[in-house]
Fold this protein.
Amino acid sequence: MTWQDEVAELERRLGLIHEMGGADSVAFHHGRGKLTVRERIAGLQDPGTFREIGALAGTPEWNPDGSLAALTPANYVIGTAKLGGRRAVLCGGDFTIRGGAADGSIGSKYEMAERHARDHRLPLVRLLDATGGSVKTFEKLGHTYLPDVESPDLSTELLGMVPVVSAVLGSVAGLPAVQACLCHFNVMVKGTTQVFVAGPAVVKEGTGIDITKEDLGDERVQIPNGVIDNLAEDEHDAFEQIRRFLSYLPANVWQLPPRAEPLDPADRRDESLLSAIPRNKRRVYDPYAILRSVLDHDSFFEIAPLSGRAHITGLARVHGYPVGVMINNPRYYGGAMGPVEADKAMRLVQLCDTFHLPLVWLCDEPGFHVGPDNEVRGLLRGGARAVTVFASSRMPYLSVIMRQCYGVAGGLHVRHSGMYQRYAWPSAHTGSMHIEGGTMVAYKREIEQAADPKAKREEIEARLAAIASPFRNAHALDIENLIDPRDTRPLLVEFVEAAQDVLATQLGPTPGPSYRP
């Protein structure tokens, strides 16, 4: 006497579940250049490691004799899989069944995925391809309901506990669009994805505006404004970016980030650093070349490369240890901090603080990006928030002043508590404001009353420039460590190695407010 018949029935029903919305629906989905949710999971996981949870959830239809006539799967798939050898929770909407709408779900599988990530202390990866709720739900229920964000406390709690990643893989609206941002990193796919609060039909009904879903929320809209961090060429590129992002982070805040085998000499001193910063202050340079010279070879993973482009942010390794990295990009607005740059910087600080990564800022900060456009965009409030985020952080923090460091934005390079270290190159010049911009303010009357105002201004600027030497700052102990640029990598290695002992004392959730997306 065995249970073979029941096992055979189990396999039959799992086969029905794996048919998803049916061959026609799957073909339609493929015809739009997209993978199904199960193909996405297969492409993301280490082969053969996915363990589905709630696999049989669905809506059955019964024959008169009580046998199963048909089974429509729930349009949400959850489970665990290994990514790079480490287990994570994966969840994704099945667009082949009612477009992934909420009224196609069974129970609360999404909340189940979040609870599993919390209770097992595992990273959560959302594969988003859904449009949220549908008015058909009202007819099904027989009444409407008050809006309520599904498990908001749990979603927020997770941000302070485990890495959370969202991938926009289709047209995403409503609650799934919010979930796209309730994370530490997100990515969308070029040419096939959009994300918006509400789709074109709702926009037209509410505003009278005719607009396509592409013009409303594709990568041209949501990447430059910083709503979505990274753009992938295709879905497989998105999966690779997710795997790489998670490789720098611990599974949860109770663990240290994983160290990779160091393959790059700790004492490497690149000669190119000696001439990396041009003597002409108006000349730009390649910040990525500097990153290659001081970080482990080929270890930099950039986050949000197409928004707030005056600041480059990302994750990297120094002697195998994960670190957060920020460097100014003089090719965009001279590297000045605007509202989006401030937001990028804050998110990186919060990420490092939450998951116990040292932060390295290679600073060439001319200050806030002034002007009417950024004033209208709320630069002051963004700058004030950045000050509070940097000041309240506690992760080990090292800054290297390469060239400019001015104003309140430049002041973010320093923190007066916790493990902090500062170095400066001989090319550094600093102050509360630029000599060129401040001279006309401070010496306006003297210049205007001079016989030759232009010559008088140049005379004053030359006098001030003579005392702007970093050597004078070092003599006054305003710069405590003036270094040969070629020593930058060895000093980074020394700092990051020493930081591990401090980080070990900071394990667990970060005190104060949780991570804010």
Observations:
- The longest strand covers residues 397-406.
- Residues 37-53+74-247 form a domain with the 2-enoyl-CoA Hydratase; Chain A, domain 1 fold (CATH 3.90.226.10).
- The first helix runs from residue 4 to 18.
